[in-house]
Amino acid sequence: MNKPVVAIVGRPNVGKSTLFNRLIQQKKAIVDATPGVTRDRNYGNVDWEGIEWTLIDTGGIGSPLEEKFQTLIKKQVDVAIGEADLILFLCDAKDGLIWQDTTISHLLLKTQKNTLLVINKLDNLNEVLLADFYRLGLGEPIPISALHGKNINTLLDKIITYLLPYQREVEKTQPVSVAIIGKPNVGKSSILNAILGQERAIVDDVPGTTRDAIDTLFKKGNIPFLFIDTAGIRKKSKVRQELEYYSVVRAIKSIRRADVVLLVIDAIEGISTQDKKITTEMESVGCSGIIVINKWDLATDKTRPKMDEYKKYVQKKIPYLSHLPSIFTSAITRQGISKLLMLIEQVGQEHKKWFSTSTLNKIINLTYAQSNPPSLKGKTLKIYYATQIATSPPTFILFVNHPGLVSPAYLRYLQTQIRQRLDLKATPIHLKFKKRPH
Predict the structure, then answer these.
(1) pLDDT at position 182, please?
(2) Mean pLDDT across the chain, nearest whole number?
(3) In what order do the strands lie in the sheet with 176-181?
């Protein structure tokens, strides 16, 4: 069963993302004075007094963005409200009660959902400024300062009194975390929406629509997935705005959180220098990966030979990740989407595999016998035995006569051979070397 859900709603720039970050105790949502910064729903986890729940940050209702964007944001807020067991309606004490607050309160009253009225930016907790907000008909206002942390504990205590009836058994199975990475406008959000079967992330043809890294829980059968939709990674020369800079940083952090990375490539534009930089980050972190060649419906030649040719092109461009599987998709026509989800499941399981010591040592002995390492200063590397010490990615420690005798070339040979013999097609492995104790 899932945890109870709490959604923060309100007009732009009242401090929703600041409160979100305060409650989850990390800087996950982008905070900026520019109205309309948060466009999608953003998810986080909160634990207070042993009660856990999922918190949703939403885009501002009534944001002075283009009408097209505002319609999309309103749709995301409606979905968040539909998911929520409790709503935190956030208002701004410094602005006082304005007509947008009244409009939103009418919307919330129609939902008949439990709602807490929270008044932010009350640094001195002046109750005189709260009087007007009683007119909204949502009960007693709770004064806070999200920025300075004032009265947050009172708010948390109030939240859990509402959530106790909703308390559910927490899912014990850890989800497979999947980061969707790529340049702007390659179709990352469209692929996520196609997998989920709903408009989870805002999709638009303007590059850079997704600014935050957005988490979405999804379940296929009994297997939970956590999808991380990210802002497109651009070249540094094009990262001019501070918001864009932080979006890039968070996209890279998403790679480090992931079990599986989907590197989305535009079939027409091909692989860029920036894509290569992303793959370098993937390789250094050790996450599993899938190359997703999207917009295949736009390719002029969509035959099997063309696909084989394109795969060779990908392998030539990023040879160090030639072991990764690739798949051709179209988020618009849903081509390859079902196969992609099956592949994610398979790769996610690979990433968390555990191997017996006996199996591992048989493979090490075969690999060593097939190609002995070259001598270094008259000494030859000897591998005595190996054992697995971690998963995600599979990590092995090899006890040797002298770790300094492992050359970079022989390390790559061992990694390639062990991964192939263990049938880890899409998952890197980490090898650590330690001198055998006497």
Answers:
(1) 81
(2) 78
(3) 214-220, 223-229, 176-181, 260-266, 288-294, 326-328
